From TrEMBL:
Organism: Methanobacterium congolense
One Pfam family it belongs to: Glycos_transf_2
Biological classification of the source: Archaea, Methanobacteriati, Methanobacteriota, Methanomada group, Methanobacteria
Protein name in the entry: Putative teichuronic acid biosynthesis glycosyltransferase TuaG
Ranges where the Glycosyltransferase 2-like domain occurs: 19-139
EC number: 2.4.-.-
Enzyme class (EC, first level): transferase
Alphabetical list of PANTHER family matching this protein: RHAMNOSYLTRANSFERASE WBBL
Coiled-coil residue windows: none
Lineage top rank: taxon: Archaea
Keywords attached to this entry: Glycosyltransferase, Transferase
Length: 307
């Protein structure tokens, strides 16, 4: 959608209220649990689940299609089947291109929806038409907050405080605790710069304006980049504490793939810096940043090897 200087185009009519996009990759038990946490609730809105299988070769797709064959027939679940894994962003974009809902939810396959989370989030976004993306409170299985659910953009300064450990030493400092906003009350609701892709509810009108996920990112960083573009288009990004999910973090990764995921994590930092910050800093700062990113990558691989 092209936006003129006179303001945003008027909202269009949609077939559904919410499309929930879940990407499965060899995580049968977790994905099934996620889907059931949605289906087991009586939602007062029209929704669908779009399950994208990223070329799983462990039989998980076949089992999921069997488990939810009734829901597939009645239209509550649609399957998109890939023969090649081109990454998380690519898989979500496939589903996004086929949805016709007022809101879209990116939902990780290792999460569980708690109570009326979805209804609460949609109602909150309905009250404020300026909200482009909303994230809820994301809890780990032990009940602690998944700190990634509310963040600042990884500027050079913010990243430096995190890499040097200053953010952990002074979590209540507004200066040093900016990476995960640890100085803010997790039980309050407020505008943030970034939310996590494990649960990201986005207004479709916003997506039409800012575009799809950047497929240059394979698995990490695409959510931060999306939030950056959403904020740049003058939409709000909100952390909403009155709705919750449980995130079985890391459950969707197996041990053999961990080295690749470590690489993709730091590669995402490199891509994001080049895309949004490189032109704003001197060549010296850029070189130092590159050394920091790939130095941390090497250190992480070294530690992971001995584990």
């Amino acid at each position: 959608m092209i936006v003129s200087g006179k303001g945003r185009a008027p909202p269009r009519r949609f077939k559904m209220d919410l499309s929930i996009i879940i990407v499965n990759y060899r995580t049968y038990d977790l994905t099934k649990q996620t889907i059931k946490s949605v289906l087991d609730k009586d939602h007062p809105f029209i929704y669908e689940i779009v399950l994208v299988d990223n070329a799983s070769d462990d039989g998980s797709l076949e089992k999921l299609k069997k488990d939810f064959s009734r829901e597939e027939k009645d239209g509550r679940i649609r399957f998109i089947i890939n023969t090649e894994n081109k990454g998380f962003a690519h898989a979500n974009n496939q589903a996004l291109k086929e949805t016709d809902s007022k809101y879209v939810l990116l939902l990780n396959s290792d999460t569980v929806i708690v109570d009326d989370c979805l209804e609460r989030c949609m109602e909150y976004m309905e009250k404020d038409k300026k909200i482009g993306a909303l994230g809820c409170k994301v809890l780990l299985p032990d009940g602690k907050l998944d700190k990634a659910c509310r963040r600042s953009f990884p500027t050079v300064g913010v990243s430096f405080y995190r890499m040097t450990g200053l953010s952990k030493l002074f979590p209540k400092s507004e200066r040093f605790g900016r990476y995960n906003l640890t100085y803010l009350d997790e039980n309050e609701t407020y505008d943030v710069e970034c939310i996590v892709g494990a649960f990201m509810m986005v207004r479709s009108n916003t997506i039409e304006e800012v575009g799809l996920l950047d497929e240059t990112f394979f698995m990490y960083g695409e959510d931060i980049d999306w939030c950056y573009r959403i904020k740049a288009a003058n939409w709000k990004v909100v952390y909403y504490s009155d709705a919750q999910i449980i995130h079985y973090k890391g459950g969707s990764l197996n041990k053999k793939e961990k080295p690749k995921m470590i690489y993709e994590f730091y590669r995402a930092m490199y891509i994001f810096y080049n895309k949004h910050y490189r032109d704003s800093y001197s060549k010296t700062v850029t070189v130092i940043t590159y050394l920091g990113i790939w130095g941390m990558y090497c250190l992480k691989r070294f530690i992971n090897f001995f584990r």
